[in-house]
Design goal:
alpha+beta; 19 helices; four-stranded antiparallel beta sheet; five-stranded mixed beta sheet; Utp13_C; extended
């Protein structure tokens, strides 16, 4: 670098000798030059450090009048003491100066918004606060962004302002980076002694200077002085003009780029712009165009001409002759030139000394670089040593991991040897679930009928009738309605027909499916429909014992008897005083003391006029033939209210009638044959009242029991008159018809209801006696059906017709169950009663105890104890009732054993301890309420089994914790009983540490406490559900933001976000399996308000199964202990049981894959054997259009013409033609579909057209559907046009080839054969 500078200086000296005198001129003494790295940026600054005001940032200070701007001695005679204009005498705003506090950024206040201080203050503090009191522009940016977050997101505009202030403010100075300092960009420092002012002045004009002759200079462009010929003759040499170098924009830019090579950073942008402005406006240095003086900058003088880009003339290197004013003769001019050359020599000497100094600095820099290289080599050796140590450490770690894997493998082998084999389902991913069964609405009000065998039940569900299998608990079929409600319903005694009457007064007769039939997917349609059977709605109907006739009673007091098989009325009985309320058939059974001649079919009717009428249908028919109106055989009066129930014994002797007057009347239908009149005349005709029984309730149903049936509590006897009643008190009573006493009461009488609505919900609307099963079915107003067993007196089955919205669900296990699987499921609905269903059948029980709607349910760790919380601000514990029955079908009952009271709001969340106590009992329970508190309850004194006639105990609260700011939605306890999780509508989930100490002795009490451990924040809406993972420290939550989030319990940060629901996620749970001591897969199941249940693979963050079985929000979700069953309950009152069928699906897929492989191999074998018929049929059955296309393509390419054949093959093989000719219509339609797809592409259209041509030729036109032809014609026309275009273009090719052959004939003699010999072309002949 020093040598290059010396060469430049020698070249400059040679150029300057042109104007130097020949005699030697002594060099001036060495100047005392203040050298700095800034002065190296420009060569003219090095040579004229004191002349050029542009080399110093302080050159705006005007010189004194006594000093001349061109005099170098005046500026280098001695250093000028600068004035300190930047001493801070007053404290800065927001900062009190003290001795130990420099002006740094830490002294300025922190703020998240835009800083309140100006940029000069911030820049000054940033630079002065650095260790070396200097910073590059990028370090200034970093310091400002670190101090004020505002600058991180404010864009790039503020950086331009920083560069602007650094370039123009006098306070800041730029210091070039030393050669030995690695990196890019100059440093910026603060000059506290700079004069006051905010900006450096821009040179809009030079201050007024004097010329050498003492005259003031004038501004303007210099003008040439025209010298006359006389003056020229006086001179002994040609005219000498002053050499004034002119600034050129292009040259200045080139020079500036040379000078700027030392700066490679963006911090010089503003200085560059300032220098460009100064370089491009050199006219500002002169005061007058006539009085310009020669500028002796070194880089402006050049002996080589520099031509302008536009004109090509020498504009820079060629000196211009300028007139000189103020001189009287040539001697003065020579003196001035000598003085200028003396100054140039002085400057050259100074430049030599500077270059020597630079050479010394370069040597020092090279030595420093050598030292740095040595240090770098040492560091590389250290790094290599560290890398070697790291590789050794990694090798040791891998060896340790291998040994650990070996140890774990040995441990697993040992565990398999000493522990039972794990379940094949454990640890497997569950991807498929099937709908096993559902608990759907069964009965919403209206009439009910039962088949004679008691196995199937017909109920009304809205506007349709539903047939249900009572043993399996499944729906068999539905009967199509006419969009009107069903008013009357009955099943014939033969069990073959179902008869419906609707509000439209139509009669609809259906054929009943056989008992062994499978459930039907399509609804059943009626076999016969009579549009207007009555003129008024029908309220009662009943079929005769022979299943031949049907009696129906309407609201207009008319009773019609219908022939079921033929569908026409045989009798019309009028005369009732209002709505017909009850019907009964009397047709004695042969063999019960009844002769064939005494068998008379009678019909007994009751109406709102309180009378009971007996009709002899044979006499009524005779009267109708005679043209008379039918009259009843007898009219029985004894009721004072509407008779609601009628029944006749099998022998036709006894008639019982019960009404809303709370009495039951027993009539003897054959009393006329035994009793005589005391007066004159014949014997008295008609039934006789023999007994009046007071029922003490409004009777809605009454019926006679068979004499041979065994009734609990009845005395021994072969022939007994017993009947049953059901009414407003909700119980079924069995009476002794002889003495009017109650034999047995089914159900419990409830105390007086607080409101009329509750009383109506409790009453019985109807009762049906089923002789085949000795069961009485009671239909209650609350849409429940109870099955009472007469021999045992117990409730054998209970069906809940309508559950309303399912709010919560949980599994329970019966203590008497032989296996550990769950036997029952508890449901909380929009009611105060808890539904307890069997997991196998529709049998259910109702648990009463709450006074308001039940909101939440939970089961204990053993699964035998149930907890419930409701709007009555209380929680109740339900324990199983001990039973001695060992039958698998025996239903387990639960009873309330304790209650927890103390909350000020509804209890919407419950959680049991996950572990049992040392004695195997309960430990504690948590309740969460709308009062935003969590209570911990001591359950150590509560028994896990209910005791008979024991009053519920009051639980003691251990602690109360204010948990959330809004309602608490869910609680969950960790498997170790160490943590409690809660979630709320305040969009957070919190985790608490549980501290529990059991009672040390009988007199002491347990202690419990909750301590907040962490809060999970991230949900954008309320959190509905929270669950701990069973085998990992992970927490799952579901919120109203439609996401499922997984949280780590170490830092409470979000690990996963599962998105897929289109509405709020209401419930989440983990699918786990603990069989064989292993945990199941990492699957999470979630239920949302979109009616979907989704199963998620946590590790893959994907939804592996979507279960669609609901039409409304899924509020309830329960998972069995083995993880194989999922129960979901929704607002559509449907409960769905989902069973894991992953193994079955995998097995089916494997079988299908194996079968596919075999069939593909068969296809290849058929093709190899040229058995094209089977090959084509197999390809069509496999639905492999690609293989079929390949077959047709190979046949077309390998087709040969057989000259001996009478008709050539169209497809390429006669066997294929025969196959296409005899193809089945189904396979033909499939093949045409493939052809349509092939024909749509130009690459496959040829084969498609070939096969289509074969089909059209070999088969009649009717076999090809019109829709396929419509799809084939457009593409076929397009292919035809393309082929025609190619044919036309081929004519051009033929023409060109023909012309080429014609010209070749003329040029045949001129052709020359060329051969290659050794890689060189050689002419053979001409």
């Amino acid at each position: 670098m020093g040598a290059g500078l010396r060469e430049k200086f020698a070249l400059w000296t040679h150029k300057c000798n042109v104007f130097m005198p020949q005699h030697p001129v002594p060099f001036p003494p060495a100047l005392k030059i203040s050298f700095s790295p800034v002065s190296m940026s420009r060569l003219d600054t090095i040579l004229n450090p004191d002349n050029d005001y542009r080399s110093s940032p302080r050159s705006d200070i005007a010189p004194s009048p006594s000093q001349s701007p061109a005099s170098p001695a005046s500026s280098v005679s001695g250093p000028v003491e600068p004035k300190n204009y930047y001493v801070l005498n007053t404290p800065m705003p927001g900062h009190d100066p003290h001795p130990d506090c420099p002006d740094t950024l830490s002294c300025l206040p922190d703020t998240d918004g835009r800083p309140q201080h100006t940029l000069p203050i911030i820049l000054r503090c940033a630079i002065l606060g650095s260790p070396k009191k200097r910073l590059t522009i990028r370090e200034i940016y970093s310091a400002m962004e670190l101090k004020y977050p505002y600058y991180r997101t404010a864009g790039q505009t503020w950086k331009q302002s920083v560069r602007h202030h650094l370039s123009l403010n006098r306070l800041f100075e730029r210091q070039p980076r030393p050669v030995t300092d690695p990196g890019f960009g100059s440093y910026w420092t603060v000059n506290l002694e700079a004069p006051p002012g905010t900006k450096r002045p821009r040179k809009r004009g030079r201050p007024t200077h004097e010329t050498p002759d003492g005259l003031p200079r004038k501004r303007g462009r210099p003008r040439k002085v025209v010298i006359s010929s006389d003056e020229t003759e006086q001179l002994d040499h040609p005219p000498i003009a002053t050499l004034v170098p002119q600034y050129d924009r292009r040259g200045d830019e080139a020079y500036h780029m040379d000078a700027m090579d030392m700066y490679d950073d963006e911090d010089d942008d503003e200085s560059y712009e300032d220098n460009q402005f100064r370089l491009h406006h050199p006219e500002d240095d002169y005061e007058s165009e006539e009085d310009m003086v020669m500028d002796l900058d070194l880089h402006r003088r050049s002996g080589t001409p520099n031509y302008d880009n536009h004109s090509g003339s020498a504009s820079r290197g060629t000196p211009r002759l300028m007139p000189v004013h103020g001189f009287d003769g040539a001697g003065d001019l020579l003196d001035q030139l000598r003085a200028e050359m003396a100054g140039l020599r002085k400057q050259s000497a100074d430049a030599v000394s500077v270059s020597m100094r630079i050479s010394d600095q370069l040597s020092e820099a090279q030595a420093e670089a050598a030292r740095a290289k040595a240090q770098l080599k040492a560091l590389e050796k250290v790094l290599e040593e560290e890398s070697r140590k790291r590789r050794e450490a990694e090798k040791l770690a891998s060896d340790e991991a291998r040994r650990r894997e070996d140890a774990e493998g040995a441990l697993h082998r040992l565990q398999r040897h000493w522990s039972p084999s794990p379940s094949p389902d454990a640890g497997k991913e569950r991807r498929s679930f099937k709908k096993a069964r559902t608990i759907a609405p069964l009965y919403t009000g209206g009439p009910v009928a039962v088949t004679p065998d008691g196995q199937r039940l017909v109920t009304c569900l809205g506007e349709e009738a539903l047939l249900t299998d009572l043993n399996q608990g499944t729906e068999i079929c539905r009967f199509v309605g006419d969009t009107e409600s069903i008013t009357a319903l009955c099943i014939t005694p033969s069990g073959k027909h179902v008869v419906l009457f609707t509000s439209s007064m139509s009669l609809r007769i259906f054929d009943l499916p056989p008992p062994s039939s499978e459930p039907l997917s399509a609804p059943l349609h009626p076999t016969r429909v009579i549009a207007r059977a009555h003129n008024a709605p029908v309220h009662v109907c009943k079929a005769d014992p022979t299943s031949t006739y049907l009696a129906s009673g309407a609201a207009d007091g008319t009773v019609k008897v219908w022939d079921i098989a033929r569908g026409f009325p045989t009798h019309v009985l009028r005369g009732h005083g209002g709505v017909v309320s009850a019907l009964a058939w009397s047709f004695p059974v042969l063999g019960l003391g009844v002769d064939l001649g005494e068998r008379t079919m009678r019909l007994v009717t009751g109406s709102v006029d309180t009378r009971v009428r007996v009709w002899d249908l044979a006499k009524c028919a005779e009267e109708a033939k005679a043209g008379k109106s039918a009259r009843p055989e007898a009219v029985l009066e004894g009721h004072v209210s509407v008779p609601r129930g009628l029944d006749v014994s099998a022998d036709g002797r006894w008639l019982v009638s019960g009404g809303r007057d709370a009495v039951v009347l027993v009539w003897d239908m054959k009393a006329k044959a035994e009793k005589k009149s005391k007066g004159k005349g014949k014997a008295r005709e008609g039934p006789v009242l023999v007994k009046t029984v007071t029922a003490l309730e409004r009777v809605e149903a009454v019926g006679l029991l068979e004499e041979e049936v065994e009734v609990v509590g009845s005395s021994e006897g072969s022939k007994k008159l017993r009947f049953y009643t059901a009414g407003e008190k909700g119980v079924v009573r069995v009476w002794d018809g002889k003495d009017g006493s109650v034999i047995w009461t089914f159900g419990e009488e409830h105390p007086a209801a607080a409101s009329e609505d509750q009383e109506e919900q409790r009453q019985i609307l109807d009762a049906i006696y089923v002789p085949s099963t000795s069961t009485i079915i009671s239909i209650h107003a609350d849409q429940n059906l109870l099955f009472h067993s007469l021999p045992t007196g117990a409730l054998s089955r209970q069906l809940i017709g309508f559950n309303d919205e399912i709010i919560d669900a949980t599994f329970l296990r019966s203590p008497s169950a032989s296996s550990s699987s769950e036997t029952h499921i508890a449901l909380a609905t929009n009611s105060s009663l808890i539904r307890l269903y069997s997991t196998q059948t529709l049998d259910a029980r109702l648990l009463s105890g709450h006074t308001d709607i039940v909101l939440s349910l939970a089961s204990s760790a053993s699964g035998t104890v149930l907890a419930s919380g409701g709007k009555d601000r209380s929680a109740r514990l339900w324990a199983p009732v001990p039973t001695s029955s060992t039958s698998a079908n025996a239903h387990q009952d639960w009873s309330c054993v304790a209650h927890c009271e103390g909350h000020a709001g509804s209890i919407g969340a419950l959680a049991f301890a996950r572990q049992t106590s040392a004695a195997g009992g309960l430990k504690f329970m948590f309740t969460g309420s709308q009062d935003r508190t969590i209570k911990m309850w001591d359950l150590s004194s509560i028994s896990a089994l209910a005791e008979e006639d024991a009053e519920p105990a009051q639980c003691h609260s251990l602690c109360t914790h204010k948990a959330h700011d809004k309602d608490i939605n869910a609680l969950d306890v960790a498997p170790t009983d160490a943590l409690l999780a809660s979630c709320s509508q305040d969009r957070t989930a919190k985790v608490y540490t549980i501290t529990y100490a059991a009672a040390a002795h009988a007199g002491a009490g347990a202690r419990g406490e909750l301590t907040l451990l962490g809060t999970c924040r991230g949900h954008k809406r309320g959190v509905w559900s929270v669950r701990f993972a069973r085998h990992e420290r992970v927490l799952a939550t579901g919120g109203g933001d439609r996401t499922v989030r997984l949280w780590g319990l170490d830092k409470f940060d979000c690990l996963r976000v599962l998105e897929g629901h289109s509405n709020s996620v209401l419930r989440v749970d983990w699918l786990v399996s603990t069989e064989g001591g292993r945990a199941g897969g990492g699957e999470v199941v979630s239920a949302g308000a979109d009616g979907l249940v989704k199963v998620w693979d946590v590790r893959g963050e994907e939804c592996v199964a979507t279960l669609d079985g609901h039409e409304d929000k899924v509020w309830a979700l329960a998972v069995s202990a083995d993880g194989k069953r999922i129960v979901s309950g929704a607002a559509d009152s449907v409960v769905t049981f989902w069973e894991d069928c992953t193994e079955e699906e995998d097995k089916k897929h494997e079988e299908a894959r194996a079968e596919m492989v075999l069939r593909e191999q068969d296809f290849l074998n058929y093709v190899a054997l040229q058995d094209y018929q089977r090959a084509i049929e197999l390809a069509l059955s496999l639905e492999h259009p690609g293989r079929l296309y390949s077959l047709f393509k190979d046949l077309a390419s390998n087709a040969t013409i057989d000259p001996s054949a009478q008709r050539p093959s169209i497809t390429g093989h006669p066997a294929v033609d025969s196959v296409l000719r005899t193809l089945h219509p189904t396979d033909l339609a499939r093949l045409l579909g493939y052809i349509r797809t092939w024909n749509a592409r130009a690459s496959t259209s040829a084969i498609a057209q070939r096969v289509l041509h074969a089909l059209v030729s070999l088969r009649p036109a009717e076999d090809i559907p019109a829709d396929v032809l419509e799809a084939l014609i457009p593409y076929t026309e397009r292919h035809l046009a393309r082929v025609e275009r190619l044919v036309r273009e081929s004519y051009v090719v033929d023409f060109v080839l023909g012309e080429m052959d014609m010209h070749a004939e003329f040029e045949e003699d001129d052709r020359m054969d060329i051969e290659l010999e050794g890689g060189r072309a050689v002419a053979v002949g001409v």
